[in-house]
Backbone:
């Protein structure tokens, strides 16, 4: 018994020693191979590499136009967002039909492994893996998830706030507005996530000398032959991308073409324009509520220091037109934020929200010849006549800007 | 965009053609400055304020250039919005361009009785604080025809 036990203990001892020796040997071999430039084998399929770098461009464009762009860059921002959405949808599909290491099933997604890996990193070790390491895998899920949520909230905002895009007929203004806030917060979180991602790649490439950048460009890593990716997957990638693109643009266009009751063009505006467009541009009826229009029309003989009186019959017809199309008949940002804002002097431009949106403009700009008055919304809003006040249609006249900056 | 431009171009050419065709007859149509003058002369006579020599461009000019009291403080004169030189374009207080008042520069002026009356009513009340008399209106148009 005693003897047997001793023997067994000896045997296990020997086994562990042998195992340790083996693993040390393997490590050594690996290091040697690395140093000597072990044959690089393919570990990233082609689609995932193209996806990665186009995503970098699209996300950069989205972030730059989102955080720093003037309002009239919205078109480019939306284009970037569409690109991100298509890429992310493609990537999600690729999780299930992509190459070996591109698949979600290959991700070491267990918190235990992530913690172990973190421990290793702290102790200055990070084994080279052909696929993602556990922390990297979580990072990618986070990034893709964030981008997906940002795309979704972006489309909701575009529909609700700007009356554009596939959801414009379905999302009320208030929901678009709320989604816009979430969209912004998510974008800030994304910045931190990107910083984390770059930090991780920096650690891996610079500290642990794992050639991740090469893996994401040439697709190769110095790992054992049997860990190689099973192919380049170019045709399959093209096919999956094509399917995603067709579905995306199909859905976008079909939904965008559904009749929109939140904004519509106005008809029978002739009599209004004939009478209210001589001194300033004819404000869109959705910029005041029925009762405010009534008070404006009743006070025309003393209209902001001028006599703008109109014969009673014409005045009645104009009022009917204005009330038929007033702020409660539209669900646009301008109608909700400006049209429904009660102001004591009945001016649109007295609304607090109006002043906030225009506070970056110097007061003097409204007196320049090109603008003339706050009442001339169309001096800067090319689509003022439609009542939409889209971001992309804001152009402060250059002459006006120069005249103001020259004076002060 | 393209459709709209095309439509405007078509409408524009149609109007040009129509204008050329009817160019000689427009002056004779109802609603000309002369018609307006005739109307104001009748009104002035009826009110017994028509002087011997008829309407006067001089009096019209004086009315146009003078600073008045009694109207709204922001608009003391016709030239607050129209230009002292009536062949020049004016500007509303809200910055919109007003075509020159001189008939030679804006030939379609003083022809639409409703429009003329509407603006005399408004502008006289803004500047003078009262409506203009038929005599003043006639003088004013006479002045503008001479410019």
Residues:
């Amino acid at each position: 018994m005693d003897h047997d036990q001793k023997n067994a203990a000896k045997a296990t001892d020997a086994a562990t020693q042998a195992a340790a020796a083996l693993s040390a040997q393997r490590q050594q071999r690996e290091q040697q191979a690395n140093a000597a430039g072990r044959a690089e084998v393919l570990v990233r399929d082609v689609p995932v590499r193209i996806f990665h770098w186009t995503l970098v461009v699209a996300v950069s464009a989205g972030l730059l136009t989102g955080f720093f762009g003037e309002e009239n860059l919205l078109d480019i921002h939306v284009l970037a967002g569409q690109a991100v959405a298509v890429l992310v949808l493609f990537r999600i599909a690729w999780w299930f039909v992509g190459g070996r290491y591109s698949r979600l099933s290959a991700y070491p997604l267990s918190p235990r492994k992530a913690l172990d890996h973190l421990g290793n990193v702290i102790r200055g070790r990070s084994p080279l893996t052909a696929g993602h390491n556990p922390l990297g895998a979580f990072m990618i899920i986070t990034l893709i998830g964030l981008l997906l949520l940002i795309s979704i909230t972006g489309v909701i905002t575009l529909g609700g706030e700007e009356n554009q895009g596939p959801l414009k007929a379905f999302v009320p203004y208030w929901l678009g507005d709320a989604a816009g806030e979430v969209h912004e917060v998510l974008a800030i979180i994304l910045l931190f996530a990107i910083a984390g991602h770059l930090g991780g790649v920096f650690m891996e490439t610079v500290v642990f000398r794992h050639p991740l950048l090469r893996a994401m460009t040439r697709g190769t890593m110095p790992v054992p032959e049997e860990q190689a990716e099973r192919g380049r997957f170019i045709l399959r990638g093209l096919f999956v991308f094509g399917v995603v693109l067709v579905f995306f643009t199909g859905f976008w266009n079909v939904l965008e073409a559904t009749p929109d009751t939140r904004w519509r063009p106005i008809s029978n505006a002739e009599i209004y324009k004939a009478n209210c467009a001589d001194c300033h541009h004819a404000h869109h009826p959705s910029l005041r509520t029925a009762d405010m229009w009534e008070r404006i029309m009743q006070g025309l003989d003393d209209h902001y220091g001028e006599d703008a009186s109109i014969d009673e019959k014409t005045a009645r017809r104009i009022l009917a037109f204005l009330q038929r199309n007033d702020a409660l008949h539209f669900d646009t940002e301008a109608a909700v934020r400006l049209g429904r804002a009660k102001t004591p002097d009945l001016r649109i431009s007295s609304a607090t929200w109006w002043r906030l949106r225009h506070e970056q403009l110097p007061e003097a700009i409204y007196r320049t010849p090109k603008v003339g008055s706050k009442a001339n919304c169309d001096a800067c809003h090319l689509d003022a006549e439609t009542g939409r006040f889209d971001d992309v249609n804001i152009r402060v006249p250059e002459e006006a800007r120069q005249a103001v900056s020259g004076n002060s | 965009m393209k459709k709209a431009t095309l439509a405007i171009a078509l409408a524009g050419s149609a109007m040009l053609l129509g204008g050329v065709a009817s160019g000689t007859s427009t002056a004779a149509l109802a609603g000309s400055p002369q018609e307006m003058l005739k109307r104001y002369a009748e009104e002035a006579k009826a009110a017994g304020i028509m002087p011997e020599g008829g309407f006067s461009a001089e009096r019209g000019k004086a009315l146009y250039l003078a600073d008045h009291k009694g109207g709204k403080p922001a608009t003391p004169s016709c030239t607050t919005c129209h230009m002292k030189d009536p062949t020049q374009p004016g500007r509303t207080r809200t910055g919109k361009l007003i075509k020159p008042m001189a008939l030679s520069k804006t030939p379609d002026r003083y022809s639409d009785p409703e429009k003329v009356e509407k603006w005399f009513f408004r502008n006289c009340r803004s500047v003078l604080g009262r409506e203009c008399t038929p005599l003043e209106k006639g003088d004013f148009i006479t002045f503008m025809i001479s410019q």
About this structure: The CA atoms of residues 75 and 127 of chain B lie 5 Å apart. Chain B has one domain: 3-146. Residues 3-146 of chain B form a domain with the Cytochrome Bc1 Complex; Chain D, domain 2 fold (CATH 1.10.760.10). Chain B touches chain A at residues 72-75, 91-96, 118, 121-123, 125-126 (CB under 8 Å).
